Backbone:
């Protein structure tokens, strides 16, 4: 199937590893020019090289969501692009933390980056897309906004706020050919998942292997997902064929969430 991504431009945040990297590489495989965004230029350059070695096209742009000047610079880059067709908004995740007891300054800092920072970049991108009458806003969330994940209070809360914004935005821009969706990963094999397993093991006084086995036991597929499987879903949602999908939250979790309607 031709996804209609040849010649399009996609900006992928968090592209240095994990879900962002996997998505960026698959978009490039489909012919999109990919702008790789993360904090570390050296790691991004390595991903760029992998894409180019495979025959794809990519460039690097550094951004730290916790730095407002850095966010503004990324927004200016977006404004000056010849075109922008796809935005993969991926903020990474905050450190594990239990409720109650999380300091106010932690909430403030994480809200500024994970919510306000993403909204600034999404809004800047949407303006470009509306003018072009085509666009795909894809926000990487978490299954924790459907069923809160223990020890991830900040992530559960702030990603839910972003989800509300994405749904609201989707209704405002659909008539301009711009779709807005949120994709909710469950346990996918990434450095963040490994860190969560390590934190769980430490808090329960068990081995990391046992923490991982306990987690896998809750997943009907009996395994963690692969980052490429997740990236495949985003790549389809970025395609021309996905033009009638908007305002949705798509779960990629191996069936871990048992509910039907959410």
Residues:
């Amino acid at each position: 199937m031709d996804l209609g991504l040849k010649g399009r431009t996609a900006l992928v945040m968090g592209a240095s590893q994990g879900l962002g990297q996997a998505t960026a590489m698959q978009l490039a495989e489909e012919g999109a020019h990919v702008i790789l965004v993360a904090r570390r230029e050296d790691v991004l350059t390595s991903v760029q090289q992998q894409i180019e070695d495979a025959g794809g096209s990519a460039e690097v742009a550094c951004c730290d969501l916790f730095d407002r000047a850095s966010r503004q610079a990324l927004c200016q880059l977006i404004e000056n692009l010849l075109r922008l067709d796809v935005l993969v908004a991926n903020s990474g995740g905050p450190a594990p933390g239990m409720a109650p007891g999380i300091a106010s300054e932690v909430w403030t800092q994480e809200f500024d980056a994970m919510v306000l920072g993403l909204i600034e970049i999404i809004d800047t991108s949407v303006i470009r897309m509306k003018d072009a009458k085509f666009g795909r806003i894809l926000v990487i969330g978490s299954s924790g906004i459907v069923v809160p994940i223990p020890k991830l209070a900040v992530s559960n809360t702030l990603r839910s706020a972003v989800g509300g914004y994405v749904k609201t935005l989707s209704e405002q821009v659909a008539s301009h050919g711009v779709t807005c969706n949120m994709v909710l990963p469950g346990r996918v094999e990434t450095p963040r998942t490994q860190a969560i397993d390590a934190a769980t093991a430490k808090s329960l006084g068990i081995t990391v292997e046992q923490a991982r086995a306990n987690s896998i036991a809750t997943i009907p597929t009996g395994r963690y997902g692969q980052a490429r499987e997740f990236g495949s879903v985003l790549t389809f949602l970025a395609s021309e064929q996905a033009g009638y999908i908007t305002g949705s939250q798509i779960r990629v979790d191996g069936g871990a969430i048992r509910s039907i309607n959410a």
About this structure: The longest strand covers residues 178-185. The two ends are 29 Å apart (CA to CA). The chain has a mean pLDDT of 95. Strands lie at 9-13, 33-38, 57-62, 86-89, 135-140, 178-185, 249-252.
